[in-house]
Amino acid sequence: LDIITRFGDASGLHLNISKCTVTPIRCDHINLHEVLHAFGGQIVAFPIRYLGLPISLGRARLVHFQFILDRIRARLAGWKGKLMHIAGRRVL
Predict the structure, then answer these.
(1) What DSSP element (H or E) covers 7?
(2) Which of 23, 54, 74, 79 yields a CA-CA distance of 20 to 30 A from 34?
(3) Three-class SS of residue 60?
(4) Spans of all domains in the chain
(5) This protein's superkingdom (predicted)?
């Protein structure tokens, strides 16, 4: 954590440890709780969201992105009903 503190002092970008998470990849042979004891964040497993988008191990599947598609469909339904000409609605 010393290097993170130094980085924050130099750059002005500080970590909010209460919002931080650690997602281990291929760390089966070490005791993560022991290593991360001083960290204070929490350990989470895949799939996770980063900047609102899903990240998973392996190939991305439709189920990981379904919430985005649902949001887009809901917004398009309201938008096309209000603003589009009837010919444009048929095309869409």
Answers:
(1) helix 2-11
(2) 54
(3) coil
(4) 1-45, 49-92
(5) Eukaryota
